[in-house]
Amino acid sequence: MDTPPHIPANTRPLFASNTLVRVPDICRNPKTGQPGILPISRSTWYEWVKQGIAPPGMRIGGRTVVWRLSDIQAMTKVQSGR
Predict the structure, then answer these.
(1) What is the pTM of this model?
(2) Which Pfam families does this UniProt record tie to the protein (predicted)?
(3) What is the dihedral of CA 8, 10, 12, 14, to 10 degrees?
(4) Is residue 76's pLDDT more than 80?
(5) What angle is formed at CA 44 by the lines to CA 42 and CA 46, rounded to 5 degrees?
(6) DSSP letters of 6-61?
(7) pLDDT per residue over 24-72, tens digit each?
(8) Are 17 and 37 spatial neighbours (Cβ–Cβ below 8 Å)?
């Protein structure tokens, strides 16, 4: 997806909204200091999925589960009241 050239580089999205992300992308990693999309732990993420707060993942094979970035962004907007 190419962003039109008239949009300044610093306002272009880093990811396309249909990007698929895995848990290491979503959650922070306290061991490595790697930030995630959300400042939460893996256990919190899986608890949110179990409770229905976060969207269910999509199994794409074997043990690999992914989420649409747009679904996570929509969830955070609902949670923040925007």
Answers:
(1) 0.72
(2) Phage_AlpA (PF05930)
(3) 160
(4) yes
(5) 70
(6) TS-GGGS-SS-TT-EE-HHHHS-BTTTTB--SSS--HHHHHHHHHHTSSPPPEEEE
(7) 999 988 888 888 899 999 999 999 999 999 999 999 989 999 999 999 9
(8) no
**Token pair of 77, please?**
């907007």
Domain ranges of the chain: 21-80
Q: What is the structure's pLDDT at 1?
A: 47
Q: What is d(CA 81, CA 16) in angstroms, rounded to the nearest whole number? A: 23
Strand partners of residue 20: 68
Neighbours of 39 (CB within 10 A): 9
pLDDT at 7 exceeding the cut of 50: no
- Reported as a pLDDT band with limits 50, 70 and 90, residue 16 is low
